[in-house]
Design goal:
Layout lengths: L3 H6 L1 H7 L4 E4 L3 H6 L7 E4 L3 H13 L4 E6 H15 L7 E5 L12 H13 L3 E4 L6 H15 L3 E5 L2 H4 L1
Parallel strand pairs: 1-2, 1-3, 3-4, 4-6, 5-6
Helix pairs in contact: 4-5, 5-6
């Protein structure tokens, strides 16, 4: 199936237009279907999500615009890194979270984190924006940038699987 919704939203183009230097990611089938490595953006593959929080924080404070891309099942692995590093030190960057555990989920181990994702983000004092049929990735990204400038903390963009957007 052609991934027309994500291609229309053009994640790589949004990154380039917004001067993203680094994309830090743990491989995920949803993210792999919507983001392809591109020249001008350094893609760094992580073994664990909390590594990405530390690296994105370091890149951000050094003036290198970075984005962390993780699956929501990995969010639980890095909550403490967000709560103990990015929040108290006011380090804001975009975190793109692919969403599993929804009504279309066929893997039962994904469901608990799917249900908890939004509450976990709110519990650490951060906001999220959801990509939908009405909100393109680019619109969500630009809103997240504005929120980061004001709040000085990470903003999460929740990216549903393609079937949810169709």
């Amino acid at each position: 199936m052609e991934n027309t919704v994500y291609k229309h939203n053009n994640i790589e183009k949004t990154f380039i237009e917004n001067n993203v230097k680094n994309v830090l990611t743990v491989p995920c089938s949803i993210l792999n279907s919507c983001y392809k490595e591109t020249s001008g953006v350094n893609t760094i593959y992580l073994s664990r999500e909390e590594e990405g929080v530390g690296l994105a924080s370091g890149f951000t404070v050094s003036g290198n615009n970075s984005v962390l891309m993780i699956q929501n099942s990995g969010l639980g692995n890095c909550i403490n890194a967000f709560a103990s590093l990015t929040i108290p030190y006011k380090i804001g960057f975009i975190v793109i979270v692919s969403m599993r555990g929804d009504d279309l989920e066929d893997n039962p181990v994904q469901v608990p984190m799917g249900k908890a994702t939004k509450n976990l983000i709110k519990a650490i004092g951060c906001n999220y924006i959801e990509v939908s049929r009405q909100n393109s990735f680019e619109e969500c990204y630009l809103r997240a940038i504005r929120q980061i400038e004001i709040e000085k903390r990470p903003v999460f963009i929740l990216l549903p699987r393609l079937e949810v957007l169709m």
